[in-house]
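help with this record:
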Amino acid sequence: MEHVIQNSGTEHGWRRFARFLGAGLAWFVVSLFTLWAVAALCFDVRRIWLRIPAVSVFVLSLLAVFIFTKGAWLRLAGCAACSTIVLLWWLSIEPSNNRPWQADVSQTAWAEVHGNLVTIHNVRNCDYRAEFDYTCRWETRTYDLSQLRGVDTYIVYWGSPWIAHPMLSFEFGKDEYIVFSIETRKEIGQFYSAIRGFFRQYALIYIVSDERDVVRLRTNYRKNEDVYLYHLNMDSVRARTRFLDYIDRLNELNKQPEWYNALTRNCTTSIFTQREASRGSYKKLTPWDWQILLNGKLDAKAYREGAFAGNFPFAELKVRAYINPVAHTLDKAPDFSTRIREGRP
């Protein structure tokens, strides 16, 4: 009898512990949800003068939940409901292509495909005098897919070795390159903030550019950015497919803008959610893989999987891939793209 009572007491203790643990976890999740809701109201209410009133109404609603409800689980549900209302409002915020954009993102690229000929409108070709002092030209260029010769990737670091910005460059004919850079589309007066990137602050834009624009900007005009250039082992069929995937996304975003998100829709996850990813590129990676979210080590993984040209140990290949020193000597040279590739695998 005593043994039965002891077992019953032990089971009761475990149940109490499980309920306590479950309640603690639930409150932790709802607390994070609540903090997110407050931040969303602070950042994403479009009219600045409405932000404080909106946060005040939200906080008063939470206080009302605690005052007028009894029981921990009812209060938990009430808090979750308040944050869910904010989430539904947040999801209803639509992106737009019609805003006062900064000059370097004022146009969105779009393309026409006629057989092997692809005509891209609004190819950016900025002439830089300094990082924020430039004149942008928006050009129309036509490319022949039968002349697609290869694909390179640029990996750009600006601080942490765990975070990078990848760009893909396609070579057509002899020494003609077009590069795609997936970026935030900022309005006049906006600046990039990693925290703001988790909210509905920036539209997503695919910049299609001359290499003397987006590459030289990063090697020669921005401070503390390191740029590495790798040639990809990609056959002509996959290169063509990848290029057309980018073209499809250009046209989609030109018609229906999307929000940038630092976690779910950024410069790297966007690449891996394009249709090419679902057809076998980087089979071992998903958009939620830690090497996508912390993409600074993607070059090492790509090397291990044989994606890069060059029969060198990775450390040596990365040294050879570093282009900043030679780019500084070239600057406005018309053969910039050709000469930054000299002597590289």
Notes: The longest strand covers residues 148-157. Residues 2-44 form the longest helix (43 residues). The mean pLDDT is 89. The radius of gyration is 25 Å.
